[in-house]
Specification:
Strand order of the largest sheet: 1-2-4-3
Structural class: mainly alpha
Largest sheet: 4 strands, mixed
Helix content: 55-70%
Number of helices: 22
Order of helices and strands: HHHHHHHHHHHHHHHHHHHEHHEHEE
Shape: globular
């Protein structure tokens, strides 16, 4: 605390600007979070699993399933969610607030890294833009496993930097960052498998650190021992997946193997690949900083290339510049190799990079003497700030996903009475889990149909939430397994609900 107080006294202006950025960051992420947060099928599934863990002491060995390849992540995110869900009395808002607070902490971390590496201006600009980025905010106010990746990816990069920067000298304690590296990379990998693309950067700079240390026997021994400790901690955190695979015939391992060797999943012709590299880089800079303004995104990429050329010309190979551009290059090249559509959350392990690079560029401009460039940079930051606020709460309308879900679930609870019932949904975006979760915590008699025990799990009433216009709803002939398991049906009643129609189905005689 003494060091922090002394820093505040020495840098009062910077402190108050940073404080304002953090307050703004918290406001944009926490403002009416129950109305703005995403609460769809994935989020409903997650809170059901974590609730079961807390109430039935049923620890999960696997995490969420991936959208491709029938693979499962590790369960670390579920364990991370558990305290927040418990503190919030099982409200899904609790884990969402946890992610929002982690998002604010990430803003602070971006400032710290930018300031430590490049200077005061760089840190404040990077943190300020990260705080107000609509894309970042969208992912920072919802409980979803990829949303922890920006913080832990940056922690990985900072950790390997501390190891690498201390490897040229005998520096006590810095190698302990290897342990932080192993733990944080486990979190990255269990938030999304594209976190694997962080591994080349981490390995390159770990190897460089090892080579720098090899002539100092005592330091080398310590470095190797701590690397082994780090590796075993990483394996320990990944071990639930191994236990699951051993119990289930290596299901996850075989799915990953199949995904990696299937040409339909990865690999592109060379010309197409280079085109996708460009589009991935443009997506990263445009969607995060330029608020999907393509020409602004192209301009920022152009300035980034100039910065990279300068780094190469100055041969700043043992510097944060080398680390950040290696991180960017390996990440973009790796994502582009995926033969499928790329979504914003695939890039979360790269999220801090564009902001740090813009911070570096502004730092250079303000450190120079060209007044025109300074004026232009002020206008640039002002424009980005303006369009960011136009796309952020409270100006934008809330999605109201969770309030809508609660509203529909209350109707189901009322119409079901105190009787047993089954549940299904007809939707493009949602599944029954979002409604099922609230019906479970309210103590209703909801029952899942089990094909191996239909006699005991099929009830006398099936509620179907159709989230399409009424004329497109045909619950009797829908292919949902939750409807087909119920058997031959007829519509007993129906009610208009928020966002669709609720049907009550019964058995035909």
């Amino acid at each position: 605390m003494g060091k922090i107080k002394n820093w505040i006294k020495a840098n009062p202006k910077e402190f108050w600007i940073l404080f304002a950025i953090l307050i703004l960051s918290a406001f944009l992420r926490l403002y009416k979070i129950d109305q703005y947060m995403t609460f769809l099928g994935d989020e409903g599934r997650d809170v059901i699993i974590v609730r079961r863990f807390l109430t039935e002491l049923h620890p999960p060995l696997i995490g969420p399933g991936t959208s491709v390849g029938n693979m499962y992540l590790g369960p670390l995110y579920y364990y991370m969610m558990a305290p927040a869900l418990l503190i919030a009395n099982f409200s899904p808002v609790g884990p969402a607030i946890q992610i929002a607070l982690l998002g604010v902490l990430t803003v602070l971390f971006v400032w710290f890294v930018g300031r430590s590496w490049f200077g005061k201006t760089s840190g404040l600009i990077a943190a300020g833009l990260y705080a107000i980025s609509p894309t970042v905010i969208t992912f920072s106010r919802s409980s979803w496993n990829p949303n922890i990746m920006p913080f832990f990816a940056l922690l990985c990069i900072w950790s390997v930097w501390k190891v690498w920067s201390s490897s040229t000298k005998a520096s006590e304690g810095q190698e302990k960052w290897l342990i932080v590296l192993g733990i944080s990379f486990a979190f990255v990998l269990q938030s999304h498998y594209l976190g694997l693309l962080l591994a080349p950067t981490l390995f390159i700079f770990w190897l460089l650190s090892l080579l720098e240390t090899r002539h100092r026997k005592q330091d080398l021994k310590k470095f190797i021992n701590l690397s082994l400790v780090s590796f075993f901690l990483f394996l320990a955190l990944m071990s639930p997946l191994l236990i699951f695979d051993i119990r289930h015939g290596w299901t996850n391992f075989l799915a990953i193997k199949s995904f990696l060797v299937t040409r339909d999943a990865i690999g592109l012709p060379l010309s197409v690949y280079f085109s996708k590299v460009g589009s991935t880089a443009l997506m990263l800079f445009t969607n995060l900083i330029a608020i999907k303004t393509i020409y602004l995104g192209i301009s920022i990429i152009f300035l980034s290339v100039i910065l990279l050329v300068w780094v190469l010309k100055k041969r700043l190979f043992h510097s944060p510049y080398a680390l950040i551009f290696t991180w960017l290059t390996t990440g973009v090249l790796g994502v582009a190799y995926y033969n499928g559509p790329v979504y914003d959350h695939y890039l979360e392990f790269l999220f801090p990079i564009p902001f740090l690079i813009v911070g570096i560029i502004i730092q250079f401009i303000f450190g120079g003497k060209n007044k025109i460039l300074k004026i232009l940079s002020v206008f640039l930051i002002g424009y980005i700030t303006f369009i960011s606020f136009q796309n952020n709460p409270p100006i934008t309308d809330p999605t109201m996903q969770m309030p809508r879900t609660i509203s529909v679930a209350k109707v189901i609870q009322e119409k079901a009475g105190n009787e047993r019932f089954n549940l299904a949904t007809i939707s493009d975006l949602n599944n029954r889990d979002v409604y099922k979760y609230f019906l479970l915590i309210w103590g209703t008699k909801i029952v899942d149909t089990d094909p191996s025990s239909l006699k005991f799990t099929v009830t006398d009433q099936l509620f179907v939430v159709c989230e399409f216009p009424r004329e497109k709803c045909d619950p009797i002939h829908d292919s949902s397994v939750w409807i087909s398991n119920f058997g031959w049906t007829k519509i007993v009643d129906e009610w208009p609900v928020w966002g669709g129609t609720l049907f009550k189905l019964g058995h035909t005689k």
